[in-house]
Amino acid sequence: MKRREFITLFGGAAVAWPLATRAQEPQLMRRIGVLMGWNETDREAQSNLAAFVQELQQLGWTGGRNMRIDYRWSNGDVNRMQIFAKELVGSAPDAILAHTTPVTAALQRETRTVPIVFVVVSDPSGRKFRRRPAPPRR
To answer: Mean pLDDT over all residues of the chain?
Structure first.
């Protein structure tokens, strides 16, 4: 390769490089809080969480790339549920997954603005776990 061709090639790459870097801006990192009502060693709970994470991945959400999941396990202890609910809400997640009726109640006492998705809940209507309008997007 001749000197002039090399300089032309290098100069063109140097001009295109900043454009390529700007086009690959990092994605917004979404945060999901998960508060489980069971023990961390419970196989069913682990299986449920694995299915949840797998479904998120199929939808394009990958841990460490565009989302982060913070897990808390209450082991059925109501006091731990309340402590972890306060802690998760304080970490400003984009949404929280609540597992069991007492966990959902603890989270609702802590926030009315963070969306809570709940599973394994008995009588959600009777307990007034009602859908609220989603908060405005940031």
So the answer is: 81
Could you give the CA distance from residue 94 to residue 29 in angstroms, rounded to a whole number?
Answer: 10
Return the pLDDT at 14: 47
Q: For 46-69, what is each residue's pLDDT tens digit?
A: 999 999 999 999 999 999 999 999
- Per the CB < 8 A criterion, the answer to whether 95 and 115 are in contact is yes
Region of 75 (left: φ > 0; alpha: ψ -120 to 50; beta: rest) is left
DSSP conformation letters of 50-75: HHHHHHHHHTT--BTTTEEEEEEE-T
Taking residue 8's Cβ as centre, other Cβ atoms within 10 Å add up to 11
The answer for residues whose C-beta is within 8 angstroms of residue 87's C-beta and 6 or more apart is: 72
- Domain ranges (residues) in the chain: 30-119
Distance CA 104, CA 95 (A): 13
Question: How large a percentage of the chain has pLDDT more than 90?
Answer: 62
Query: Domain 30-119 falls in which CATH fold?
Result: Rossmann fold (3.40.50)
